[in-house]
Amino acid sequence: MSPADDLAGLRVLDLSSVIAGPLAAMTLADLGADVVKVERPGTGDDARNLHPQFEGTGTVFLAFNRGKRSVELDLASPAGREAVLRLAESADVLIENFGPGVSDRLGLDFVSVSARSPRIVYASVSAFGDGETGRRLPGYDSLIQAFSGMISINGHPGAPPTRVAPSANDISTGMWLVISILLALGRRDRVGEAQHVKAALIDSALELMAQQVLATIAGGEPVQPLGSGSPSTMPNGAFRTSDGWVVVATANEIQWQRLCGAIDAPELAEDPRFRTLGDRLAARAALEDELGRRFAAQTTATWIDRLRAARVPVGPINDLAEALAHPLIAERRLLVPVDDESPGLPQLRLPIDPDGSFVGAAPPRLGEHTGEVLREAGFDEEMIRSLQPPAQ
Question: pTM of whole model > 0.85?
């Protein structure tokens, strides 16, 4: 059996949008689950309309929705709500990221859904949780980064607040949600009852910063932005060369000694300002200045050759296009073409899928599978026509 069949027979109803919930549902689809994505008539998942776009669809949507079947249903209408509840009756998992109070107003909350599907795993994604404080706060990844302090420790000293470019909290929350769902499926099978699991972006944000959180609680120096630098080791960061940049990442005294030798600066190893790791961290600015003057004298290629020969961790700074063009990406099979009659963008395989064998069909067109899914659920043709939006 292929690993992509591990969840064969599992039915997932994806009511979520944008990144965290859709990523979790896509992961389950890659592992063999049948995932039905329910979308708003006409506009669909908000991610479809975000930019940049490829052939009229947002690349955010294309990144997190492969392998699913799309159904258009108006959840605000009694008929649409009833259709979702009927679909839930045959589902093992339901994923939602409605705003605070919305699932209750729609009648699609855990209590209502589990009454119709007594063994369902109901998975909720929120920004700040559903407590009295958290439910009042608006939530997007950038707001989580701001609230959690992530933005405050990113970027360069003295520069304006800088967002972490990837939606790190959305993506990591999706990963935690998958773990929660798989655990809940096992628990459901043991106890025979519906399970409600929850994942919040703020929890993921603090977990991503666990090192900095404990450093702050321990009462040391306030955590500050360090540009490309590391809070724990030094030298560890970017240095400008005569024609570009390199990143050096020493982690111990042996590598520090090797670095000094490789750049023909043995005197730095004996300098009392830089003798121990603690000394180097305390004198970060002075050491960066000393190293910066030396690195600026030679090309990137020269330094990479010299430092690698000396067994000092070093590498170039690529832009994203350069990184994607590197032979390593092909060697790792990180980009996988989808098996589709009209091939579009390749897909990034899951990190747990080294051969790229799990990747399913291309992300669906809006409402592409509405009739198919509703027929499977036992709806007659007249009811299907009444639920489908009018032709545009």
Answer: yes
